[in-house]
Amino acid sequence: MAVFLDGSPAGERIAGHAAEIATRHAAHLIGMFGAVHPRSAAPAESFARGAEGINQVLERHRRETEVKAVTAGRAFAAVTEARALSSEFRVVWRDSVDDDAALHALHCDLVICSRPKPVDLPQGWTGEHVLLASGVPVLLVPDTWTGSSIGDHVAVAWNGSREARRAVADALPFLSAAQSVTIISIERHNGRSAPGEELLQHLERHEITAQVRTVQAADGPTSQILADQVGEIGADCLVIGAYSRPRSAEILFGGTTRNLLARCPVPLFLSR
After folding, report:
1. DSSP classification of residue 255
2. pLDDT tens for each residue of 100-135
3. Selecting from 3.40.50.150, 3.40.50.620, 3.40.50.80, 3.60.15.10, what CATH number does the domain 153-271 have?
4. Which intervals hold domain UspA (predicted)?
5. Distance CA 74, CA 53 (A)
């Protein structure tokens, strides 16, 4: 597993969540700190006159970045050592870190990120970017999340799509470790639905006990229905197949994934 870190309080919280999850799954945990090279960055005091002034600004920015990296590394070491976790801390320092984030994630089974992205992380270090660039599943944890754990009661958003099936397959370790699993199937009055009974049987073959919760809904956004259902059953994680239609269309017209990213109060396990 990998977790994206910065030196902020939000970074410390996500490190704690990631350590708890890695402990539950006996996983190796990689803490990743992304640093933009000073010559590619635009610090607030970037206006300078003359070569000496420019070099001073770049040096100041480099030192500030190093301090943040040390802060993040110490926080990460504290939570992993307390749990005797197998772990490592990496500083990815490149002219362009976006592709590097996806590259590092390729060697992980899961990437854990804060939602929204901490301001000190590079612009491209979002869960959405890694998911779309690498195909690695992503767990997005709201920075307001105060639950004691993630994955005790897992809800699965089921609509029978390719993305939903992929998400279930990627989330099998999460589902196996959960104390309770609920399949949420939305039945529309227009007849378009995907009953969850066959998925229930599939999970039983993997020795996962689950229950199906079918929601009758004439209309209304799927994202709102899912968020409401998750709240009603007290789930602490929602598994969903992301972007069943092109992301560009969701950006322009909205969509379940995009709306859930904005409003879902619990951690989201995204796969596609």
Report:
1. -
2. 666 666 789 999 998 877 666 776 777 788 888 788
3. 3.40.50.620
4. 154-270
5. 32
Q: What percent of the chain has pLDDT over 70?
A: 78
Q: Are 211 and 235 in contact (CB under 8 A)?
A: no
The mean predicted confidence, pLDDT, of the chain is 83
Instruction: Compute the distance between CA of residue 45 and CA of residue 193 in angstroms, rounded to an integer.
Output: 55
Do 2-142 and 153-271 come out as alike in CATH topology?
yes
What kind and span of H or E run contains 173? helix 172-177
Kindly report the backbone phi and psi dihedral angles of residue 240, in degrees, each rounded to the nearest multiple of 5, phi listed first.
Answer: -145, 140
Is there a contact between 79 and 107 (Cβ–Cβ < 8 Å)?
Answer: no
Query: How does DSSP assign 26-46, residue by residue?
Result: T--EEEEEEEE-GGG---TT-
Q: Within the chain, what is the greatest distance between any pair of CA atoms?
A: 70
The closest of 10, 7, 30, 6 to 141, measured between CA atoms, is 10
Report the C-alpha gap between 70 and 33 in whole angstroms: 10
Reading the block at residue 236, the tokens are: 């602490």
- Name the CATH architecture for the domain at 2-142: 3-Layer(aba) Sandwich (3.40)
Instruction: Read off the pLDDT of residues 15-39 as tens digits, 9 standing for 90 and up.
Output: 999 999 999 999 999 999 887 665 5
Residues 33 and 27: their CA atoms lie apart, in Å, by 19
Mean pLDDT, to the nearest integer, of 148-170? 94
